[in-house]
Design brief:
alpha/beta, Rossmann fold, 3-stranded parallel β-sheet, 10 helices, 43% helix, binds guanine
Length: 288
């Protein structure tokens, strides 16, 4: 039986620390760390994510400011809001929920956010800083994966990690963080001819492809640790079901440790967003 890495429990520890630090911050500076969350349109999944982010922020003693804009919002209007949030000293973190409606340019909006308030860690300045080992705000999902890996395995130095997927949000920053922790890192993706063979040599497999249950037993070395970033809704036996990118039933018996879906990476992402907001607030306040 594999160790089931409990993302809910680990995220509760992270949020506990955030709440303690947020209270200290408020004592010291006379205001709460502030997180602005911007949602454009009414994508149902995004609405759920934003609701959860606001709830966790409030519970952790942060001030959360929600901005809901209609689906037909123009690029100029959104830019203007971002400019106001950049200039607002009570806002320490800015998150524009993605995906944006088709007519809006995501890359441009990400670049419009002050890198010091970019709690998603998506701004090119933060992306570059992560890759050269300078102080940055780091993307929340891979940060959450690293916390779970280090709690489970201790020092990761020298371990062979295979990241499945090369997205800007997860795959690429995940690889950068594993490399910083002195892992030997391989990224495999849709054009890798022998992806399963490579993954099956790894001590650590991080699955971030967005394909339901793609990673089967043939991808995983016995005794490996498996982190499943996928959140996919499928229909099985007439029922809607949430599954990861890993075929849990097939992989769990041979893994050393594995994250479930739901209850693995998901809660860690939100907890790390709160952690980033506190980090941003501390840096901004001590710079001002
Ligand atoms: N949509 C899905 N994941 C994310 C995320 O991590 N940040 C933002 N802003 N939008 C998302």
């Amino acid at each position: 039986m594999a160790i089931r890495i409990d993302g809910k429990a680990v995220s509760a520890q992270v949020l506990d620390n955030v709440a303690t630090d947020a209270a200290l911050f408020e004592q010291q500076f006379g205001l709460k760390p502030g997180l602005a969350v911007v949602l454009v349109g009414s994508d149902p999944a995004s609405q759920v994510y934003v609701r959860n982010k606001i709830a966790r922020a409030t519970e952790s003693g942060l001030n959360s400011i929600e901005h809901r804009l209609p689906a037909d919002t123009t690029q100029d209007t959104l830019n203007q809001l971002v400019a106001e949030l950049n200039a607002d000293p009570s806002v320490h973190g800015i998150l524009v929920q993605l995906p944006l409606p088709e007519h809006l340019d995501e890359d441009q909006i990400i670049r419009a956010i002050d890198p010091a308030k970019d709690v998603d860690g998506f701004h090119p300045v933060n992306v570059g800083a992560l890759h050269i080992g300078e102080e940055s705000l780091e993307p929340c999902t891979p940060q959450g994966c690293m916390i779970m890996l280090e709690q489970t395995l201790g020092n990761l130095s020298g371990k062979h990690a295979v990241v499945v997927g090369r997205s800007n949000i997860v795959g690429k920053p995940m690889a950068a963080m594993l490399l910083r922790a002195s892992c030997t890192v391989t990224i495999v993706h849709s054009r890798t001819p022998n992806a399963a063979e490579l993954a099956s040599q790894a001590d650590i497999v991080v699955a971030a492809v967005g394909r339901p249950e793609m990673i089967g037993a043939d991808w995983v070395k016995p005794g490996a640790t498996v982190i499943d970033v996928g959140i996919n809704v499928i229909e099985r036996n007439g029922q809607r079901k949430l599954v990861g990118d890993v075929d849990y039933a097939a992989v769990e018996p041979l893994a050393y440790a594995i994250t479930p879906v739901p209850g693995g990476v998901g809660p860690m992402t939100i907890a790390c967003l709160m952690k980033n907001t506190l980090t941003a607030a501390r840096r901004l306040q001590s710079a001002s």
